[in-house]
TrEMBL record:
Residues 149-180, 192-210, 233-242 have a biased composition (Polar residues). This is Uncharacterized protein. Keywords: Activator, Chromatin regulator, Nucleus, Repeat, Repressor, Transcription, Transcription regulation, Ubl conjugation pathway, WD repeat. Its main location: nucleus.
Length: 666
């Protein structure tokens, strides 16, 4: 008998997912690299870990129930903790052995006494002690010798799990997908945090989050088979654990020692066909690595993915982009062109060209590291990305500890190596000359975008830094699991301001459009609004009943394109709701309650009239803010990590746990 740590980790991940521990599942899956294993989750039944534990418990009881002489003896049922404590088991064995010896002595004495009184003193045969044992404890569950897997699901073993009413009971069977069934599916993530983990791939999200997590749905056994037949020979999706092969060419940047990817054809689908793809039936896949890549497929049908009702986005206005081999934590539109960038657990970022021009439709940005004299895939998640203001360059942050700058056509320009561990957040300043990053090494760094050099490293946090946001071109705020928020300035050796107040890790921070108010959200279920003129919060907003994962300001109010509209703050929570706050008055203006699972992302349209929300219930809703009503909805095939608007407000991009990226025409 043999087993591997990957197999153990997978069973633990599945138990957490099936039990509704979304954030824990996401994080565990992210850190144990579940998505990079070759385990076929479709073949693993629900409740597999509990079934195996129960069998082990039966075996331990059986050992105690059989004496050295092979005779059965009465043994009370063991608790799981009792069974794993060697001293307890040994003491129980000795007690049973002594009891058996006493019973045998009594039987011998009775037998001797009976023989002396003659045949009339017969003793009745004793019934099987094992049979008596299994029925003696009325409080114990009925255990059959070979329990059926479905009877060992978390719901049957511990009824308290059913109290997690916000978890969809139909989603307990899935395979490996962070945060959701199809996360990899952190995860995730109170805080996968998509690690935010935006556990968008952040270390605590989406899980990151995971990690941030999962929401597994019944697995489709047809998925992996279809994938194998659809993947062309030499495709990157067939490379085990992300290692390159001879059939996939790359070009090495000798200066930065990073492989520059060869452009690959993009597979996309518009949901306008009546043909049904069995492997995209809406069920999660067992392993998020099983995503078809490398071909253009127009025979797509996602009619079954559309939500019922008049607000459904028409099928012909949805394009599903397939190519990533693992969960996609984050996506962002180019500010000047319809180029959608995405970052994934498959150690790549991709730029999808949706302009309809003759340009490459998909550019694959492989994140490689130097190993000896060769470049190999890092096999680490791409957790963050951001376009510069002019749209000419894309910055990415990875779990391999490097930030990278790429041109808009997919060529590597610089590799930024100073962090000692995963990067959780990364942002350009408005001028476009500096990049700001935050990492697990507790530091934040300002990089010169032109030279790629570290301008200044700030080591003020005492725990991993989770998010950063620029106030001006040289001043920024950072937050951390140490519950503190520091405001720092380039050239200063100490924080210019430190905010204390949260009682748990701070997941995200955002400056308002004027740079006057700083909003923060935390696992302590509160939002706080700060100003540089006060040490205490201007507002302490409490309404959510679970962790708040992310926040966004509306592009309204003074110094915006919509100066006459009210400034609002949107908050997304693991309680499955989104709240809109009138910050000036310090009140909750409306609560959006359509989602049924944790909400990982919110995004305002450029004119501030609409709000897009994405959840692990696989749904994307677009709300009319003034009316508080849904105007458009779409249901995808995986839990949603990120939603974003293009600069004109005509398209919504979304990234999902099953490796898909969606483009919705508004």
């Amino acid at each position: 008998m043999s087993f591997t740590s990957d197999e153990v980790n997978y069973l633990i991940y599945r138990y957490l997912s099936e039990s509704g521990f979304v954030h824990s599942a996401y994080l565990f899956g992210l850190e144990s690299h579940i998505a990079h294993t070759s385990i076929n989750g479709n073949s693993v039944p629900p409740g597999a870990l509990l079934s195996l534990i129960q069998k082990g418990l039966y075996y331990t009881e059986a050992e105690l129930s059989i004496g050295d002489d092979g005779q059965e003896r009465t043994c009370d049922s063991l608790s799981l903790i009792d069974a794993v404590v060697p001293d307890f088991v040994e003491n129980r064995r000795k007690e049973l052995q002594q009891l058996q010896q006493q019973q045998q002595q009594q039987q011998q004495q009775q037998s001797t006494s009976s023989s002396s009184t003659g045949p009339s003193g017969k003793i009745e045969p004793k019934s099987s002690s094992r049979t008596t044992t299994l029925s003696s404890n009325n409080n114990d569950k009925d255990r059959s010798p070979m329990p059926h897997p479905t009877n060992t699901s978390p719901q049957s073993i511990n009824t308290t799990l059913s109290d997690r009413s916000n978890i969809d009971s139909s989603s307990t069977n899935g395979g490996v997908n962070y945060p959701n069934s199809s996360a990899s599916e952190y995860g995730s993530s109170s805080s996968l945090r998509p690690f935010n983990s935006t556990l968008t791939g952040r270390s605590h999200s989406p899980a990151t989050a995971q990690s941030h997590y999962s929401h597994n749905h019944p697995s489709s056994s047809s998925h992996s088979n279809t994938i194998q037949s659809s993947a062309s020979t030499g495709n990157f999706s067939q490379i085990p654990n992300g290692n390159d092969n001879n059939s996939h060419s790359s070009y090495t940047n000798n200066t930065n020692h990073i492989a520059i990817p060869k452009h690959e054809p993009m597979e996309y689908e518009t949901s306008n066909s009546s043909h049904h793809h069995s492997h995209y039936s809406g069920n999660s896949t067992s392993n998020s690595l099983n995503v078809p890549t490398g071909s253009l497929n127009n025979n797509n049908n996602n009619n079954n993915l559309m939500m019922n009702g008049s607000v459904d986005i028409p099928a012909h206005r949805v394009t599903v982009l397939r190519g990533h081999e693992s969960e996609v934590f984050i996506c962002a539109w180019n500010p000047t062109h319809d180029l959608l960038a995405s970052g994934s657990g498959d150690s790549t970022a991709r730029i999808w060209n949706l302009q309809g021009s003759g340009r490459e439709q998909e550019m694959v940005l492989r994140h490689c590291i130097r190993r000896g004299d060769t470049q190999v895939p890092s096999n680490k998640d791409v957790t963050s990305l951001d376009w510069n203001p002019s749209g000419t360059q894309l910055a990415t942050g990875s779990y391999d500890g490097y930030a990278r700058i790429w041109s808009s056509d997919g060529n590597l320009a610089s590799t930024l190596g100073q962090h000692k561990g995963p990067i959780f957040a990364l942002k350009w300043n408005k001028k476009g000359n500096y990049i700001l990053s935050a990492g697990v090494d507790r530091t934040t760094i300002i990089w010169d975008a032109n030279s790629g050099h570290c301008e200044q490293q700030f080591a003020f946090h005492t725990a991993p830094a989770l998010d950063v946001d620029w106030q001006s071109d040289v001043t920024f705020a950072s937050c951390s699991t140490d519950q503190k928020i520091h405001v720092c300035r380039l050239g200063e050796t100490k924080p210019v301001k430190t905010f204390h107040g949260h009682q748990n890790e701070v997941n995200a921070i955002k400056w308002d459009p004027q740079g006057r108010l700083l909003a923060s959200c935390s696992d302590d279920m509160t939002l706080k609004i700060w100003t540089m003129t006060k040490d205490t919060p201007v507002h302490n907003l409490q309404a959510h009943n679970k962790e708040i994962y992310t926040i966004k300001w509306s592009p309204t109010g003074p110094n915006t394109m919509n100066p006459n509209a009210t400034l609002l703050l949107a908050s997304a929570s693991f309680d499955s709701t989104v709240r809109l706050w009138d910050v000036e008055r310090g009140i909750c203006q409306s609560t959006l309650v359509k989602h049924s699972e944790p909400v990982y992302s919110v995004a305002f349209s450029p004119d501030g009239r609409l709000l897009a929300t994405g959840s692990f219930d696989k749904a994307i809703h677009i709300w009319d803010i003034a009316r508080g009503e849904i105007v458009h909805s779409y249901r995808g095939t995986g839990g949603i990590f990120e939603v974003c608007w293009n600069s004109r407000g005509t398209r919504v991009g979304a990234s999902a746990s099953d490796g898909t990226v969606s483009d919705l025409l508004n």
